[in-house]
Each structure stands twice: as C-alpha cells, then as structure tokens.
Protein: Wzz/FepE/Etk N-terminal domain-containing protein
Amino acid sequence: MNKQIQQNYTDAQFPQRQDDEIDLRELFSVIWQGKWLIIAITAVFAIGSVLFALSQPNTYKSEALLAPADAEQGGGGLAALAGQFGGLASMAGINLGGKGGVDKTQMAIEVMKSRQFTSDFIQSHNLLPDLMAVKSWNMTDNTVTYNDEMYLAADNKWIREVQAPFKPEPSMQAAFKVFRNKVVINNDKETGLIKISVEHLSPFIAQQWVNWLIQDINKVMKERDVAEAIKSTAFLESQIEQTNVADIRSLLYKLIEEQAKIIMFAEVREEYVFKTIDPALVPEEKAGPKRALICVLGTMLGGMLAVMLVLIRHFVRKEN
Structure:
C-alpha cells in the first residue's frame, strides 16, 4: 500500500519528465520511420552540392605587405616650429598643427577604400571587363574568357540585358561593390604594417592589381601633398609681403622652407606613403572555392531539411 502511494506521489510530482521521455521516443520513432525519405533528400542535396562545388572556377589571391613611410615630409620641422613659435603663430592666425592631426597612413588607407579612388582606378586601368564579365581563366595560354551574354571582347561592347535606369555597361557604383569584395586592406594596429590582397580568377590579374593599387595610392597621396604645399607656399609668400614684424617674417620663411621640403621629398620618393616589404607574387595555389566545405554544408543542410519535413508531415497528420 505504501509503495503504491509513493509511486502515485512520484508520478504526480514528475509528470513532465515522463511526458518528455515519451515525446523523445516518439520523435526518434518518427525519424526512424521516415529514414528512407531523409536519406533520399540528403543524397540529393549532397549530389547537388558536389556538382555546384565542381562547377565553381578556382580563384587566386595575391597579396603584398607594406610599411608606412618612416619620414613624414616635414612633420618634424613643423612640430619644432610649433614649439618655438606657437604663441606667435597664434597671434598671426597661423596653425602649425600638432597632436590630433590625421595620420597620413590611415588617410591613405581610407582613400584607397573610397568610391572616388576606386572609380578612378578602374577607369584609368580599364578594369571593368576583368572585374564584371570574366568567366574563366585558361592556364595554358594565360588568357581570360568573358561571359558572352554580358560583354563582347572583340568589339569591346557591353550587351547585358538590364532594366532602366541601369545600362548595359555597369556603372561605377556597381563596379565599386564588386571591387570591394575582391580587394581587402588590413592594417595591423600592433605592428603598423598594411596588407593588401586581391582575389581573382586569374592569378596574374590579381598580382597586377595589387601592384597598381600600391603605385596609384602613392601617386595620389604625393600629388595631394604637393598641391597643398604649393598653395601653402603661395599663401605664406603673400603674408610675408603684408607684415613688417621681423619675428613673424622669420616664422613665415621657416614655414616656406618646410613646404619646400615636402615638395622635395615627394619628387625624390617613388614609395611616398607605403614602402613595399613583401611584394605581390603570382599565386600558384588556389584560394577558393572551399569545395569540401561546400559539400559538407550542403549535405548537412539537406539532412536537417529532410528531418524537419518528416517531423512536420507527422504532426500535421496527427492533428488531422
């Protein structure tokens, strides 16, 4: 009698646990009964993922390691002037700069990521076909094949079918989105080194783009600084003519000297902002696609969908 009472008390105290055990057994039973359907669906997804992985062309990644230029083209001289003539310069309304200025390396990185630089880069090197219409790369003769439904290489003509306001030739906005997915710029905060990598169907094109990026960003930053130095020199010369205070004139002459140093450094340095530590090479091994990963994920997805389908079908029938 006591055992019966104890059993009833236990059943009343833990009914959910028993229900859970029954539910799990039912789930496993349903899955086991639908095992052939699960196997069939999983097999279809597995075969499909294999075919999809094999249909994807190889991609190659070329990368270069860069270091910021060690000299700041007059930054040290301007800092010394700021310490020596800071108060006087403030009275004259001249800003010599100092802490809190924009880091030239970081500015160059942001310029490389900008739409304007990317658009100029694509147009100056005529990269649009290789960026938007490449279909495959032939290793034997190092040539690329273009998608003939988008671009006719022989006629240099875009023929893709798009709806307005889009045009057959891709816009720079569309090209920018694709370009950003192929180019990666990483800045290591600890070492200060910058890595630029480009991934493309052709390993030779990937290497060429990396080299062009380094050349162009050095050229753009050099031209910016030279233009700014020339404008600053013209302004300082006009200020010299307007003052007779000896100390201010001395300060202005020193500032002109610093601007002349900036122009001189720009003229003699090819690697103006970034110095190449490890140049880009033509990659021999593919970077993608990860065919094994695609097959595994495709098979797992098929298995999960098959199990869900079997369970949903069972509970729908059970409710009816």
